[in-house]
C-alpha cells in the first residue's frame, strides 16, 4: 500500500487536499493522471449503462436539495454511526472501528476504555442565505435521492416505461467520524448509481436483484480486476441500511482487507412511498408504487482498487497493468534521440495527429529505457518510437507495456493498433 501511495503522488494520480497547509482529513485531490483515470472509469460506466441500453436514462441532480428531501428519505433520523471516545487517548472514532485504531501507546483500543456509544449523524450541514437566520440545508449524503425526486419528471419527459432505470454520477458528502485507508473512506467522494424501477412483486425483485449483481461484478472483471480478489458479501439483518430489504456488497481484497466498493440493494418501495410518488401504467391505467433495485458504486474506491490491482513489480520493473480503456494515456510518442531535429519533427507530427483522437503522452527526456520505464509506471499500454528507419520507410517501433515486445508498424497503421487494444 505504501508503494501505491508513493507512486500515486510521484506520478500525479492523487494528492492530499490543501497539502501546503497541512491537508485536511478525508479530502483528496486528483492530479493530471488521476483525473484521467477517474474520467475514464466514469465514461466507461456511462457508455455501458446509459449509451448502450434502451431501458436506462441519465440525470445530473443538484448536490443541495430542499431539506425536506432528507427528512422524507429517513436520512435525518437514521443516517447515523455510533461515536465513541477513548478515555485514555481521547480520540473519537466509530465504535465498529475501534479494533482498527491504535491508542497512544501503539496498542489497539480496549472496549472497557471506551465511552458509551453516541449516535452521530453523517449528513454535512450547510447554511444558505445572506441574512440571519440562514436556511439550514445539507450536502447530499448520497446521490440517490436526486433520482427519486425527479421520478415523475423523467417519466413525463421521456415516456419511458417500467422496468427502467435512472443513472447518475456525482459527488456526495459524509461527515465520516474516522476517514482512513487512503482514499477509501473519505468525506467527499463520487458515486455512480442506478435506480432501477420494477413492478412491486417479490419474484420480480429477486430476478432483477440477481441480474444486477451479476452485471456489476462482471463489469469490473471486464476491466481487468482480478476475479480471485472479488466477492459478494450479504448484509446481516442488523447492518442493513434503513431503506434496504436486501443488500449485497461487491468487495475487493485490498491490502487493508476485504473492502466494499459497490452495493446492490433492494430498496423495495421505501423511497417512492416516503416521497408520495406513484407510477401509472400507460396501458392499464393502474397506479402502483414500484420497487427499486439499486446499484451504487464508488468512483474513488474503484479508482483506488484499479490502481492497487494493476500494480506489478517484477525484479527491477514496476508498472501498472491498467486496462487500456482506463489507462490515462493510450500511447506515448518518443523520438529515439532528443538532439536530432529530423526525428523530433517527425515524432511531433505523429504525436499531434494521434492527439486529435486519444490522450497521448510526449517524452524526449533521458534515454529510451528510462522513457519506457516512466510510461510503464503510469500504465501507458503502447510506446511509439521514431528512429532513423522511420525517415526512410514511414514505420515506427511499437512496444507493448505488458510483454515489452516490440514490432515495426507503418505510421498509417498506428491508430488501428491503438483501436485494437481499446475494443
UniProtKB/TrEMBL annotation:
Give Gene Ontology CC terms: cytoplasm; extracellular exosome; microvesicle
Which Gene3D superfamilies does this chain map to?
Anticodon-binding domain, Bira Bifunctional Protein, Domain 2
Cite the EC number: 6.1.1.14
Which InterPro entries does the record associate with it?
Answer: aa-tRNA-synt_IIb, aa-tRNA-synth_II, aa-tRNA-synth_II/BPL/LPL, Anticodon-bd, Anticodon-bd_dom_sf, Gly-tRNA_synthase/POLG2, GlyRS-like_core, tRNA-synt_gly
According to UniProt, the name of this protein is glycine--tRNA ligase
Q: Name one GO molecular function term.
A: ATP binding
Q: What are the top taxonomic ranks of the organism?
A: Bacteria, Candidatus Roizmaniibacteriota
The similarity comment for this entry is: Belongs to the class-II aminoacyl-tRNA synthetase family.
PROSITE patterns, per this entry? AA_TRNA_LIGASE_II (PS50862)
Q: Identify the CDD domains for this entry.
A: GlyRS-like_core (cd00774)
Which one GO biological process term can you cite for this protein? diadenosine tetraphosphate biosynthetic process
Q: Which domain of life is it from?
A: Bacteria
A Pfam family: tRNA-synt_2b
Q: Does the keyword Amino-acid biosynthesis apply?
A: no
Which keywords has UniProt assigned to this entry?
Aminoacyl-tRNA synthetase, ATP-binding, Cytoplasm, Ligase, Nucleotide-binding, Protein biosynthesis
- Segments forming domain Aminoacyl-transfer RNA synthetases class-II family profile: 2-324
Amino acid at each position: 500500500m505504501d508503494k501505491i501511495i508513493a507512486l500515486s503522488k510521484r506520478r500525479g494520480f492523487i494528492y492530499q487536499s490543501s497539502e501546503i497547509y497541512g491537508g485536511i482529513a478525508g479530502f483528496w485531490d486528483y492530479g493530471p493522471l488521476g483525473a484521467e483515470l477517474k474520467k475514464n472509469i466514469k465514461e466507461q460506466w456511462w457508455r455501458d449503462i446509459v449509451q448502450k441500453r434502451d431501458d436506462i436514462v441519465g440525470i445530473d441532480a443538484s448536490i443541495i436539495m430542499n431539506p425536506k428531501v432528507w427528512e422524507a428519505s429517513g436520512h435525518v433520523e437514521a443516517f447515523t454511526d455510533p461515536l465513541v471516545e477513548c478515555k485514555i487517548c481521547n480520540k473519537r472514532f466509530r465504535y465498529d472501528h475501534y479494533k482498527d485504531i491504535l491508542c497512544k501507546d501503539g496498542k489497539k483500543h480496549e472496549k472497557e476504555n471506551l465511552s458509551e456509544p453516541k449516535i452521530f449523524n453523517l449528513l454535512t450541514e450547510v447554511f444558505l442565505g445572506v441574512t440571519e437566520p440562514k436556511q439550514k440545508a445539507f450536502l447530499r449524503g448520497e446521490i440517490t435521492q436526486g433520482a427519486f425526486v425527479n421520478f415523475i419528471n423523467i417519466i413525463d419527459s421521456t415516456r419511458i416505461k417500467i422496468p427502467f432505470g435512472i443513472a447518475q454520477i456525482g459527488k456526495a458528502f459524509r461527515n465520516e467520524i474516522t476517514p482512513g485507508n487512503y482514499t477509501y473512506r473519505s468525506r467527499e467522494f463520487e458515486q455512480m448509481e442506478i435506480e432501477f424501477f420494477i413492478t412491486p412483486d417479490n419474484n420480480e425483485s429477486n430476478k432483477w436483484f440477481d441480474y444486477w449483481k451479476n452485471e456489476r461484478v462482471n463489469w469490473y472483471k471486464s476491466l481487468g480486476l482480478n476475479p480471485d480478489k472479488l466477492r459478494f458479501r450479504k448484509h446481516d439483518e442488523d447492518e442493513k441500511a434503513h431503506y434496504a430489504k436486501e443488500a449485497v456488497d461487491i468487495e475487493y481484497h485490498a491490502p487493508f482487507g476485504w473492502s466494499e466498493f459497490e452495493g446492490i440493494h433492494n430498496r423495495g418501495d421505501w423511497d417512492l412511498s416516503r416521497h408520495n410518488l406513484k407510477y401509472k401504467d400507460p396501458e392499464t391505467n393502474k397506479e402502483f408504487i414500484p420497487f427499486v433495485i439499486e446499484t451504487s458504486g464508488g468512483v474513488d474506491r474503484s479508482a483506488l482498487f484499479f490502481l492497487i490491482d494493476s500494480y506489478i513489480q517484477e525484479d527491477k520493473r514496476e508498472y501498472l497493468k491498467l486496462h487500456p480503456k482506463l489507462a490515462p494515456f493510450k500511447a506515448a510518442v518518443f523520438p529515439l534521440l532528443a538532439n536530432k531535429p529530423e526525428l523530433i519533427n517527425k515524432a511531433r507530427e505523429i504525436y499531434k495527429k494521434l492527439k486529435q483522437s486519444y490522450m497521448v503522452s510526449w517524452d524526449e527526456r533521458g534515454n529510451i529505457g528510462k522513457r519506457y520505464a516512466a510510461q510503464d509506471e503510469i500504465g501507458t499500454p503502447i510506446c511509439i518510437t521514431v528512429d532513423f528507419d522511420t525517415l526512410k520507410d514511414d514505420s515506427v517501433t511499437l512496444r507493448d507495456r505488458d510483454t515489452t515486445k516490440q514490432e515495426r508498424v507503418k505510421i498509417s497503421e498506428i491508430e488501428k493498433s491503438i483501436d485494437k487494444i481499446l475494443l
